[in-house]
Amino acid sequence: MSTDKMFGEYGGQFVPESLMPAIEELTDAYERYVLDNEAGFVDEFQRRLADFGGRPLPLQHAESLSERYDTEVYLKREDLLHGGAHKLNNALGQVLLAKYMGKERIVAETGAGQHGTATAMAAAHLDMPCEIYMGETDIRRQRPNVFRMKINGAEITPVTTGRGTLKEAISETMRDWATTVETTHYVIGSVVGPAPFPRMVRDFQAVISEEAREQVQEKTGRLPDAVLACAGGGSNTMGAFHHFVDDEDVDLYAVEAGGSSLDVDEEAGVAPNSASLSTGEEGVLHGARTKLLQDSHGQIMESHSVSAGLDYAGVGPELAHLVDEDRVDAVNVDDDSALEAFHRLSQDEGVIPALETAHAFGYLEEHHDELGDLVIVNVSGRGDKDLETVLEETEKRDLDVAPDMSVLRAAAGSGGDL
Amino acid sequence: MSLERVFADEPAFVPYVAAGDPTYEESLEYVEALERGGADVIELGLPFSEPIAEGSTIQEAVVRSLEGGMTPDRYFEFVEDLDVAVPLVCMTYYNLIAQYTHPETGETGPRAFARRADEVGIEGFVVVDLPAEEAEPLRAACDEFGQDLVFIIAPTTKGERLERMQENVSGYVYVQARLGVTGARDDVSDQTEESLARVDDWDVPKAVGFGIKTGEHAERIVSAGADGIIVGSALVDIIAEGADPEVDQPFAETAQRLESKARELKEGALAGAERAAAERSD
Predict the structure, then answer these.
(1) Which positions are catalytic residues (chain B) (predicted)?
(2) Sign of the CA dihedral with A353 first, then A145, A230, and A85 last
(3) In terms of CA atoms, which chain A residue is nearest residue B94?
(4) CB contact under 8 A, B48 and A299
């Protein structure tokens, strides 16, 4: 086994045989085009990231938060990337790579819809037909992104198996890929899956930390004490961390979804969180050995997060490895803290973050005393897609920081449904 | 003794069902019915919660079995409770093997799994998401306990991968008749002959699966050169109908239908062998 398929003991290629030739073909394409810039792939990718994507993106000094925490807080504004989330970095890279490989069709899965939206946009931009698999639960809670995907010309296929979230959507997309592998490229949406996906997706996302590292030195003359990023599968996390990994004085915090509790109900096969780095065990899922939420028999558990984008039972193998090596701290905050942080950032900074991102700000609120004098938080995406969920979940709770929404209730006329 | 023996004299019929589908007790009856119908080897599924290579028929069988409380240890108990003489192959996904803890030794992983499987009489494994590149730990355990490790050859498998798998495979090679996931089809794939040609010089029996539904399909596949046929979804469809509360079919009737279907498939395979022999003698 070649070591470059692995991150320590994590990674590998655990897929049905029908997919292995496609994975070998992809590995070859990744090495030629992405690593060796054959045919000017990297130049075209960077040009399109700039012209279509809007890069570079700002590293914003967050004045209110800096005052609140008596710590200099900087925001890496991936929410300003075209489409509203860091996901376009990877989707554009993979759709372009698929074009270079001569593929004719794109499939992808999506949880929160951000990856699906980014893939649909990239496919429209590069004139490739695109089909997106999405759990029906997620279709309900992420309607705005479903509209956007459809408007960009993508086919949306609802996945009704299991609980209808990201885990099921990934399995269904793998089934499609196994059927159409000769003409189709599967744009995996995070640093997960069989090699070379985790490394390749990380490379496409590493532009985040490459820019942030330069920008923070330009603005402050130094490196940060800490970088915070939310972690579901881990693509914005690895993107935000990659160019800081060798800077041993920079602490890296992967903030997972603690959900409603860190306890699990093994009997029911349910984890009320999505904290696979913090609470999971090593196992094999969707093509890689990594940390998973699983029961003692190895069956995969249903996960939970108020944020659809973090609601996944696995995590990228490189991130699992960096946590084992004590290079990354795996931490988590619960649904309530994430919702509070969502409102606080919206009110204090005028930035409406994705609920995924809000987890990183929840951790900042709870632990700012321990993070040093200069902190970068990766704003992985914007929160427009989450507004309906936020309204619904805020109504269920007694959050001090939440705004009074009675004006909406009055407008609804009945005092009932918003 | 290798599973090759069952392919020696005549084409083998290799049915697949998920253990515990729809219930533990009914499933015991169904597996035994398949043997009565002419099964030569039974691929007995150990259900995994994320069956990415399966179509809807087997995926739903997996859900029924898991909801009935199937676990790896319960699976081994199931095998002990079965009253069948034909060899059994465990078909599953790798995470269940990687996580397995032997109840007596406390050992974890492929060796523990293979050991427990050996204790209950399982003779081989098909691990759907374990390509030859990742198979070394299980291959070593199989060698230690005298079990076969069966690999699936897909229509996309070519070149060096074929050679690597030829070196690793034992018992029989599972020739996937078409791209995609499992599921009964109304026609057999014309890729079959091409797929068989690629493994023609392998010295293990070639069993073709994916999409075989009828005795006529079985006949065509065997006459095209297969040493055996693997049938899952067409059988699981019968179990699913029996499990449907709206159908209200006594399970003895479902068992009878399975036995009949098995007989049809086995007879189709035998007819295919006769046809091939006749064509050779022409």
Answers:
(1) 43 (proton acceptor), 54 (proton acceptor)
(2) negative
(3) A284
(4) yes
